[in-house]
């Protein structure tokens, strides 16, 4: 079973329109839509924004719906000058950038007492998502790399430069690493897919609303095509 998580209603509304809905369940104030997308058994849900919402949502998908693969779709701010607004980033791994126990000697981003610094994506899913996106969205570039997540919308050049220096990530958002963390603990496969909506700097507040719709369109197209290939 495939679980597909989006943070905002706009991100999942089009996916719901494209699926055959068989059942709707309300759990933890979230609506879980079970049915078929591209003839595959899926559960689609809006997690809400932020790491706690995302982690709770992912665990419900695992415990109640018995999903064995998680795809987190959505939008993000670019942390790489080569990545343009509209491009797609597919995670190789994810880090919680606002985790800071450095006072105890851990690097920033390290969850204390965890056996890993970053939470890896499934290698087969990375490869498949990249190949599918290059085919289905040929008008944009496809990137793979680290994604960082934290409970803040990054709209400051100073914060952006700090994230680049600390993590060497491709983009930043607010949910993916929490979902990857949950998948890691439960030993299931996961990949984060992010369409770039802004540059995560002083222009972010202006760029985000203008490019959100385009970013979501590319993301939905990729998720549907990826489901069909799985």
From TrEMBL:
InterPro entries, per the entry: MTA_SAH_Nsdase (IPR010049), Nucleoside_phosphorylase_d (IPR000845), Nucleoside_phosphorylase_sf (IPR035994)
Q: Give a GO molecular function annotation for the protein.
A: adenosylhomocysteine nucleosidase activity
The Nucleoside phosphorylase domain, residue ranges: 2-226
Q: Which UniProt keywords apply?
A: Amino-acid biosynthesis, Glycosidase, Hydrolase, Methionine biosynthesis
Is Amino-acid biosynthesis a UniProt keyword of this protein?
yes
What class does this enzyme belong to in the EC scheme? hydrolase
Q: What is its EC number?
A: 3.2.2.9
Record Pfam families: PNP_UDP_1
Pathway the protein contributes to: Amino-acid biosynthesis; L-methionine biosynthesis via salvage pathway; S-methyl-5-thio-alpha-D-ribose 1-phosphate from S-methyl-5'-thioadenosine (hydrolase route): step 1/2
| UniProt keyword annotation of Amino-acid biosynthesis present | yes
Protein name in UniProt: adenosylhomocysteine nucleosidase
Kindly list the organism's lineage. Answer: Bacteria, Bacillati, Bacillota, Clostridia, Lachnospirales
């Amino acid at each position: 079973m495939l679980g597909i998580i989006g943070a905002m209603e706009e991100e999942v509304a089009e996916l719901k329109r494209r699926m055959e809905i068989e059942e709707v369940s309300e759990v933890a104030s979230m609506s879980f839509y079970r049915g078929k997308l591209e003839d595959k058994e899926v559960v689609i849900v809006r997690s809400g924004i932020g790491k706690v919402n995302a982690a709770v949502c992912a665990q419900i998908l695992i415990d109640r719906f018995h999903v064995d693969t998680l795809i987190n779709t959505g939008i993000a701010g670019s942390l790489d000058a080569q990545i343009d607004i509209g491009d797609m980033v597919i995670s190789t791994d994810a880090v919680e950038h606002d985790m800071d126990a450095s006072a105890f000697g851990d690097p920033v981003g390290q969850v204390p007492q965890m056996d890993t610094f970053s939470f890896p994506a499934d290698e087969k899913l990375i490869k498949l998502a990249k190949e599918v996106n290059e085919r289905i969205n040929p008008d944009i570039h496809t990137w793979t790399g680290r994604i960082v997540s934290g409970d803040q919308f990054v709209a400051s050049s100073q914060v952006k430069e700090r994230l680049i220096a600390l993590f060497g990530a491709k983009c930043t958002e607010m949910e993916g690493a929490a979902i990857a963390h949950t998948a890691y603990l439960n030993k299931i496969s996961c990949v984060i897919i992010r369409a770039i909506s802004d540059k995560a700097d002083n222009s972010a507040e202006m760029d985000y609303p203008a490019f959100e719709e385009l970013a979501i369109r590319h993301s939905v197209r990729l998720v549907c095509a990826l489901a069909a290939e799985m």
